[in-house]
Design goal:
Length: 145
Amino acid sequence: MKWQSYVPLSYKRSVITGMIHRAIHICSTYILLEDELNNITEITTKNGYPRSFVDKLIGMKLSKWYTGSTINNKSNNNEKKKICIEVPFINNATKAFKNDLRKFSTQIRPDIELLVIEKPPPSVQTSFNLKDKIPNYLQSDIVYG
């Protein structure tokens, strides 16, 4: 996915963290891991990603892996109820709306954690039918099972 793609930043972040996660779990030595992380950095820079963005994600993922912070240490008593809301992605307008919505929800219901999911607009391809309709007289009347 190119950096200039019109998708939420979370999608771009997920693409890179997915590659880093795969590298960490598949590479058997630190030398291979370093080579793979350099490969990921090279691929993402060729796709227009800022080097600082990629390095930050690599650092965060490696720190999380080294410290083993995948274990959830939160107590179950203080967990907030999560509510997901899907909003259309319209670049800066979505960011502002998401921030306002979160502020509003914490003022009204502090016991709820609002998860705002940015959904990109449907692609042009979904608007068109790629297959032509076959007329009834040309169909074979055979049912495949």
